Amino acid sequence: MTNYYDLTYNPKSPKSYVLSLTSQVLRLINPTRMYHKLNIVYIILMCIIAPMITSAQKSSKAAPLFEKAKQCMKSNDFDKALTYLYQAQAKDANFADLYIMKGDIFNFRLQSDSAMCNYQRAIELIGDPDPMLYYIAGNEGAKCGAYEYALNTLQLFLQNGLQYSDVHPDAQKTIANCRFAMEEMRHPKRFELVNMGANINSEWDEMLAAITADDEQLIFTVKRPRDKGTVCAFCLNEEDLYSSRFVNGDWLPREPLGPPVRTGYNEGAQCLSPDGKYLLYTMCDADFGMGSCDIYWAKLMGDKWSRPRNFGAPVNTSAWESQPTMSSDGMTVYFASSRPGGYGGMDIWKTTMTAEGEFTVPENLGPSINTPGDDAAPFIHSDGRTLYFASNGRVGMGGYDLYYTTLQPDGTWSDPKNMGYPINSPADEINIFINASGTMAYMASDKDGGYGGLDLYRFELDDELRPNPVTYIKGRVRDAFTGDPLSARIEMIDLSTRQLLTSTTSDPLTGSYLACIHTGGNVLLNVSHPDYPFYSENFQLERTYTELSPYLKDIALQPTDVGTVVTLKNVFFDFDKTELRPESYVELDKLVEYLRKHNIRIEIGGHTDDQGSDEYNDRLSESRAKSVYDYLVSKGISADRLQYKGYGKRMPVADNATEEGRAANRRTEFKIIR
Q: What domain range is 41 assigned to?
């Protein structure tokens, strides 16, 4: 393999030299592992061009030792090279070239602070160095957070390095990063990392947390030493998926997911659907895959995961696909890919699951999200509207930063915003997860005081960075008479926009379900099964709430029998009016769908509270029932299958002494009469 000290510098053609270096180093980079913490942005152009910026000093007592260090560099023996360089420094502390070479070694080892200090010492000794040394030193300063030094040094490069115009745009971007970072550091965000403890973290690397909407199930990636089951012949480590449950205020000891999800290949970069029913994850370099990395899915059946399935075409290609995240609608999947047709190296795309395991042709999120750089690690919050992602193509703190954007009513995305300091830092931030209520964030860090390597941490999210809060409803769906569990479809629909917000199914083995409830709107809950009348609820929650109590509710579906009564909880009328409000159409369309599938005859009943006279309430309730009758007929339901009746205030279901009771009594029902 070509060593970077073997490359020949042509001073008459710096452009061709830089491009040659770039192409050779790019061959060494494995693009399938973006979800690991890498910092290679500037190695391509910095640590491999020392021959072009040496100071051509006169002979020195340190020169023989420097030459020995140079030979060690050619054989990639950096430790021995450093030993010779420190010995050379002891003989002649003013020999500038040795500091350049030390800087290169620390640069290659990602020790930017030490690299910057050595480059700076070389600049001081040379006095008028090759301008490329300013460029390298400035970039190393930016990477270790010495932003003011980096800004000043890169400005010197732009002033003196006109011959290196090819890298001027990169220097200008880093200067913009420095100015942005210095301003952000004046206004830090709330950020206090709390380690998730020994039941989650270990001496290995833990990363990429994914948690269900009820905050009770955690799945994460662990990078551990290879074992006899590791398939990759040259891998020193293997990534696997682990899980834990939150019980009695603490996370239980983690457990590997096990077969069939766990294999001898690398599994990671995963997400859970908000209801916990689907696991989407990445597997790389599998013999049966379609490309370098593919996306897979498995479904929870009872307490076991199904056999994983490759997403297949058109989602997976011969390129790199990874880092899936599923919206709460249960259909929209965002992911990162290096496939052709994007705006940069890695872009964020989305696809829609039209049926279980069937997906539409992926759509690029466009230039409002994607840049000429790399944009990846998407995370769509349970609100279905707030997207967080990592990018190195935007102005930020340096390297990969975390950004967020909001889906607008017209389907476009807002301008992405940097999450700020110290969530973002000079290092790479490549993943974040935020709980449904929008209060707590999770990320990996190798900060001091952990259990070893990367640990998983949580932190309270600053108010201005929070998405729309989401709560949830959970329980079991069963047959009202037998008590048997049912696999029912559960949907949350915005009654104003008719947008599907949440979609899930209850577990066929247990009947358990979990569904997100969005705030800031008038939302219908619909629970349907082909053999039963549907069940509905209505939720109206203010968008400003941040701590919302969950709803725990077992749902018993009534059989399609004569006498069964179903309350239509999403049929609305204005005060003292009989015209249907438009928000009623979503539920009534569900009733139309049900009637088309079942050959039954129903009575529509209107009911009121006890306010007003009997005559008034009878007339009002019958007129409202007729409005529903008329709507159903207008949708093609035969009139001879329908009848309507107003019951006034004669059949209360709650105490009229309270407003809550009176509201429950003002209702519309249908009853199966044949």
A: 4-184
> How many CB atoms are closer than 10 A to CB 10?
12
CATH code at position 507: 2.60.40.1120
The answer to whether residues 327 and 229 belong to one domain is yes
Q: Kindly give, in sequence order, each residue whose CB lies less than 8 Å from that of residue 620, ignoring residues fewer than 6 positions away.
A: 576, 578, 606, 608, 612, 646, 648
Identify any residues that bridge with 206 across adjacent strands, giving them in sequence order.
222
Mapped onto helix, strand or coil, the DSSP state of residue 546 is coil
H-helix or E-strand spanning residue 140: helix 131-143
- Work out whether the CA dihedral 106, 162, 21, 147 comes out positive or negative: positive
Say yes or no: 321 and 387 in one domain. Answer: yes
Average pLDDT over residues 42-69: 66
Name residue, tokens 């047709």.
Answer: 341
pLDDT for residue 38: 38
Q: What is the pTM assigned to this prediction?
A: 0.86
The verdict on whether omega for the bond into residue 652 sits within 30 degrees of 0, i.e. cis, is no
Same structural domain, 631 and 572 = yes
Distances (CA, A) of 608 to 7, 185, 202, 579, 618: 87, 60, 62, 15, 8
Residues 152 and 205 in one domain: no
Q: Quick one: 439 and 519 in the same domain?
A: no
Question: Is pLDDT larger for residue 587 or for residue 303?
Answer: 587
Q: Is 452 left (phi over 0), alpha (psi -120 to 50) or beta?
A: left
Output the pLDDT for position 52: 52
Alpha-carbon gap, residue 150 to 390, rounded angstroms: 23
Angle 118-124-130 from CA coordinates, rounded to 5° = 85
